[in-house]
From TrEMBL:
SUPFAM superfamilies the record matches: Bet v1-like, ISP domain
Span list, region Disordered: 1-21
Single Gene Ontology MF annotation: oxidoreductase activity, acting on paired donors, with incorporation or reduction of molecular oxygen
Name this protein carries in UniProt: Rieske 2Fe-2S domain-containing protein
Organism: Nocardia speluncae
Domain called Rieske: residue spans: 40-144
């Protein structure tokens, strides 16, 4: 699939098409608030886009519609009919296309107008006039590449390591939170909160309430880890920059939590808009053979509810934060990971704003 777009300047000052939802005058702060572009994002769990139905979502402050064609392939279009901008999501699903309810204009999964019933043969037919994103379905999740400009080339799609390892069993988890997406990243890059906020949880009740941390650089991001405690609590987190940004961490589990050793978590956040976020987790454990089935049974019957309780603790705090909570702070050594991720995202946002403004980068 391709991406249809509207115009913006090039980085050398000439005209350049920009992606939908991106204004030419967007500042770095605007981009940071509504979502960095030119990367893959998880959009929805696969189970939420059913055959024969369309599903409306907002991601990166843009309204989209998803639908499956007769082959089961998911398509993601801007939720606007190219005729009069009526939402396609309230139209009719016709298998390989959507028909606008307003005037019946039919748009396929590539964003091409295939029929204008009110005026057959008009110039709109055959025109790729609706934005269509490149989509990949993997790990029970629909992912899309969200571009900055018309010339943005999707990076190769590569899942996090844990989700491609055949020896690892995982369960997906999805929620929507009323808070900026950056608050989620700050929270996960702050392992020390586990010793306080999650102190009474089933998996993080041990460990000291004071610690020293360090940042350890890697060729794909960095680790933020305790230097004086390992294997007790939420002791480290890895931030990875690949096809998509994600965090990876492990939480030690007692033997009575089933086979497989430590419990792994892969986490991602997708901006819905400046004040709301779509949160994706995959809960993992390295198990095979009969132990895999034991672990999966135990997770469904006992552990999943406990994990939701931990997530709810995070959600309640992050939703209670003021929208500008990260503007007036007094950070200390435990917050090195938070400071690092913020610097990375500020630099990305400034670079993308410069590209839109036609400035050298």
């Amino acid at each position: 699939m391709t991406t249809a777009t509207t115009s913006a300047p090039t980085a050398t000052g000439g005209p350049k098409k920009r992606a939908v939802g991106v204004r030419r005058d967007m500042t770095a702060a605007d981009i940071a608030a509504t979502g960095l572009r030119d990367r893959w994002y998880p959009i929805l769990p696969s189970r939420m886009v059913k055959p024969g139905e369309s599903k409306k979502v907002t991601r990166l402050s843009v309204d989209w519609v998803l639908f499956r064609d007769p082959r089961g392939t998911v398509h993601m279009l801007e939720d606007r009919c190219p005729h009069r901008s009526a939402p396609l999501s309230v139209g009719q699903h016709l298998g390989d296309r959507l028909a606008c309810k307003y005037h019946g204009v039919q748009v396929d999964g590539t964003g091409t107008v295939v029929s204008v019933p009110g005026m057959p043969g008009c110039a709109l037919e055959g025109k790729r006039a609706t934005v269509s994103l490149q989509v990949v379905e993997a790990a029970d999740t629909i992912f899309a590449f969200v571009p900055l400009t018309h010339d943005s080339e999707p990076t190769p799609f590569v899942l996090p390591d844990r989700l491609t390892d055949e020896a690892v069993s995982w369960f997906p988890n999805f929620a929507e939170w009323s808070g900026p997406w950056r608050f989620y990243m700050d929270n996960v890059l702050d392992p020390m909160h586990g010793a306080f906020l999650h102190r009474d949880s089933h998996s993080m009740s041990g460990g000291d309430t004071s610690a020293r941390f360090r940042i350890r650089e890697t060729d794909r991001g960095f680790f933020f880890e305790k230097t004086d405690q390992v294997g007790v609590n939420f002791d480290w987190v890895e931030y990875v920059r690949g096809s998509m940004d994600y965090v990876d961490l492990e939480i030690p589990y007692a033997p009575n939590a089933g086979p497989g050793g430590v419990f792994g978590i892969v986490g991602m956040a997708t901006p819905i808009d400046a004040g709301n976020s779509a949160i994706f987790h995959w809960r993992t454990r390295r198990v095979d053979g009969w132990e895999r089935e034991v672990w999966r049974f135990l997770y469904r019957t006992r552990l999943e509810a406990r994990h939701w309780e931990v997530l709810e603790q995070d959600r309640e705090v992050l939703e209670a934060l003021a929208a500008d909570a990260d503007h007036e702070e007094h950070l200390y050594q435990h917050d090195l990971g938070v400071s690092r991720i913020r610097r990375i995202y500020r630099a990305d946002a400034k670079k993308q704003a410069a590209i839109l403004a036609g400035e050298p980068v």
